[in-house]
Amino acid sequence: IPPIPNEMPTALKNLIDDCWDGDPGMRPSFAGIIDRLEHLIVETDICDVKARIFWKKHFPHKFKVYYGEFMSAFVPFMDLDSLPNSQILYKCLQVLLENQQGEVTSFQFGRILGFFGPLQRNIKGEF
């Protein structure tokens, strides 16, 4: 096995180790490798645990979704309709998250959360 850098994510190290297993029968299939890589991409794109759970639950095997599809899942997940002035919040989210193709990517979602903090609501129902 070639040397693996220490700063590499653990899940990627494990995948490389598994691919180099001395017993070919123990190595992951290509479908297994793809599944693990897809999991890794979302893990590295979205550091916030609650946001990562949300993305994996609603958009498995996807790294981008149309903004409308994203909001159809995100609004009930975060109970945004119960907030005052929710339409203003929706417009703000659209400006922050939607790319020129009308999509939200896992990378941009994770990046915005990195700027504004983790997904959570306080006792008053505010972010």
Account of the 3D structure:
The protein has 127 residues and is mainly alpha-helical. 56% of the residues lie in helices and 5% in strands. It has helices at residues 10-19, 30-45, 49-58, 67-78, 86-97, 106-116; strands spanning 64-66, 103-105. It has a two-stranded antiparallel sheet with strand order 1-2.
In a nutshell, what does this entry contain?
By secondary structure, this protein is mainly alpha-helical. The chain is 56% helix and 5% strand. It has a two-stranded antiparallel ribbon.
Q: Please provide the ordered H/E string of secondary-structure elements.
A: HHHEHHEH
Helical segment tally? 6
Radius of gyration: 18 Å
Low-confidence stretches: 122-127
Element layout with pairings:
Layout: H1 10-19, H2 30-45, H3 49-58, E1 64-66, H4 67-78, H5 86-97, E2 103-105, H6 106-116
Antiparallel strand pairs: 1-2
Helix pairs in contact: 1-2
Index terms:
two-stranded antiparallel sheet, mainly alpha, single chain, 6 helices, elongated, 127 residues, 2 strands
